[in-house]
TrEMBL record:
<dbReference type="InterPro" id="IPR027469">
    <property type="entry name" value="Cation_efflux_TMD_sf"/>
</dbReference>
<keyword id="KW-0472">Membrane</keyword>
<dbReference type="GO" id="GO:0008324">
    <property type="term" value="F:monoatomic cation transmembrane transporter activity"/>
</dbReference>
<feature type="transmembrane region" description="Helical">
    <location>
        <begin position="113"/>
        <end position="134"/>
    </location>
</feature>
<dbReference type="InterPro" id="IPR058533">
    <property type="entry name" value="Cation_efflux_TM"/>
</dbReference>
<dbReference type="InterPro" id="IPR002524">
    <property type="entry name" value="Cation_efflux"/>
</dbReference>
<keyword id="KW-1133">Transmembrane helix</keyword>
<feature type="transmembrane region" description="Helical">
    <location>
        <begin position="160"/>
        <end position="184"/>
    </location>
</feature>
<dbReference type="InterPro" id="IPR036837">
    <property type="entry name" value="Cation_efflux_CTD_sf"/>
</dbReference>
<feature type="transmembrane region" description="Helical">
    <location>
        <begin position="9"/>
        <end position="30"/>
    </location>
</feature>
<dbReference type="Pfam" id="PF01545">
    <property type="entry name" value="Cation_efflux"/>
</dbReference>
<dbReference type="GO" id="GO:0016020">
    <property type="term" value="C:membrane"/>
</dbReference>
<protein>
    <submittedName>
        <fullName>Cation diffusion facilitator family transporter</fullName>
    </submittedName>
</protein>
<feature type="transmembrane region" description="Helical">
    <location>
        <begin position="77"/>
        <end position="97"/>
    </location>
</feature>
<feature type="transmembrane region" description="Helical">
    <location>
        <begin position="190"/>
        <end position="211"/>
    </location>
</feature>
<keyword id="KW-0812">Transmembrane</keyword>
<feature type="domain" description="Cation efflux protein transmembrane">
    <location>
        <begin position="10"/>
        <end position="217"/>
    </location>
</feature>
Length: 320
């Protein structure tokens, strides 16, 4: 993900959530609706989440230090994980508690016109934020399904914003349903039911985010298609016979570590092997631009090692 694209989506979501949170708070003050209160807290939490994502991007740009020789790229994953925790604890847990309280002690929704007006405005603002996130994601999705994009994206910001905005839109519809049913039936428990549904939705989204960002945080490598491209690039070099084994790991969204043991020919000189390693690194970076750190270990495979240890005549089966 480009820095510009990710930042644009985050800022759009932040602006929308701040405006929505303020309008929902006003509606709650006039209506006393627990759905509106839950949605207000949800929007406040989302605003804080966007702030955390921006903080993570900023801190990840720090230079390497002796204590952190591979840099701070994973700070973006850490703050995305914190977002998932905040969404679960502040958004989901509070909504579930408030919904249970409203169902146990139902109250009439006062001044419902305020709730309807704010919810419709909020749906429009959240829709704008969601549209921005979709537009930014489409430039990187490369034909993949949305689920595959969320699963395989190495930059956490867009998947987080996408899932948050989707949850917010569905939550607004649930709040609108709860308030509408409470007004139509005169039963305030419908407001609580809508609030509980919002809490369950936020809990599911937070769980998905936590699982995906945890995977990034503990270290993910390239997918099968990228791994094949790297191996093909390495083996296309004249001095490389084949790749013995390889390990990859993302140190951050834009920095990939590649470590590989490559088989070289036993009759190549050290200078030829060194030139081959330089050429191999250049070819890998041409196909995988984020490959910032490449460590290649030259070695003989077992057959070459045995042949190199034998006299030439014995290696060919001739008498000496």
């Amino acid at each position: 993900m480009s820095a510009e694209g990710g930042t644009k989506a985050i800022i759009a979501a932040l602006a929308a959530n701040l405006g929505i949170a303020a309008s929902k708070m006003v509606a709650f003050a006039f209506t006393g609706s627990s759905s509106m209160l839950a949605e207000s807290i949800h929007s406040v939490a989302d605003s804080g989440n966007q702030g955390l994502l921006l903080l993570g991007r900023k801190r990840s740009e720090r230079d390497r230090t002796p204590e952190h020789p591979f840099g701070y790229g994973r700070e973006r994953y850490f703050y995305a994980f914190v977002v998932a925790v905040v969404l679960f604890t502040v958004g989901s847990a509070f909504s579930l508690y408030e919904g249970y309280h409203k169902i146990s002690h139902p109250e009439d929704v006062e001044s419902p016109i305020w709730a309807f007006a704010v919810l419709i405005i909020a749906i429009g603002m959240e829709g704008f934020s969601f549209r921005t996130a979709i537009k930014e994601s489409n430039t990187l999705r490369a034909g993949k399904s949305w689920w595959a994009f969320i699963r395989r994206a190495k930059a956490p910001e867009l998947p987080v914003v996408l899932l948050e905005d989707m949850a917010a839109l569905v939550g607004l519809v649930l709040a609108l349903f709860g308030v509408s049913m409470a007004v139509a039936t005169g039963d305030g428990r419908w407001d609580g039911i809508g609030t509980v549904a919002i809490g369950v939705l936020l809990g599911l989204v937070a769980t998905v985010l936590a699982i995906e960002t945890k995977s990034l945080l503990i270290g993910e490598g390239v997918d099968a298609e990228q791994e094949k491209r790297i191996i093909d690039a390495l083996e296309s070099v004249e001095q490389v016979d084949h790749v013995i084994h390889m390990r990859t790991e993302y140190l951050g969204p834009e920095e990939l570590l590649i470590a590989a043991k490559i088989a070289v020919y036993h009759d190549d000189t050290a200078a030829e092997v060194a030139r081959g390693i330089d050429a191999a690194e250049a070819k890998v970076r041409a196909v995988i631009p984020e490959a910032g750190m490449i460590y290649l270990e030259p070695a003989l495979d077992e057959a070459d090692r045995r042949n190199a240890a034998k006299p030439a005549g014995k290696a060919t089966g001739e008498n000496v």
